[in-house]
Amino acid sequence: MSNNQKKKLTPVQQEYQALEDKLETKRPIFTNCIKAFITGGIICLIGQAIQMFYIYYFDFTDQTAGNPTVGTLIFISMLLTGFGVYDRIAQFGGAGSAVPVTGFGNAVISAAIEHRTEGFVLGVGGNMFKLAGSVILFGVFSAFVIAMIKTILIQWGGL
């Protein structure tokens, strides 16, 4: 709390604020950053291994191996979420597990699991697409805009 805000508080509120500051649990920011870095790095390492698997065994190129790799990572994160393993990974790694695409898969399947008692259509489907729907919509709209820009540039100047 800034000094200007503290001046506006009554003496009792200032005393309470000081007590709260003293008793507040200090977060280990440096340790959390290291854990997030390691967790995200391991997820990316697994993704790289999966991509190399697709390139080596299925004759994908570097450019074409990306889509099945992302799909595989999302599928793995959904399976791990269903078995309750991804929650432990997320608890340890924090943002390191939420930022990669596996965090998206975890968020989608978590909403589906949480609302499964409401039925498949309204519970699972409706709540699963609360998050996924906006991501899919933004992706489709962005692809449309980029395709239009590319088409216009090709027609006018030739790229």
UniProtKB/TrEMBL annotation:
Coiled coil: none annotated. It comes from the Bacteria. Keywords: Membrane, Transmembrane, Transmembrane helix. The chain crosses the membrane at residues 36-57, 69-86, 135-156. Signal peptide: none annotated. The keyword Transmembrane helix applies. Pfam families: SpoVAC_SpoVAEB. This is Stage V sporulation protein AC. It comes from Metabacillus arenae. The gene is spoVAC.
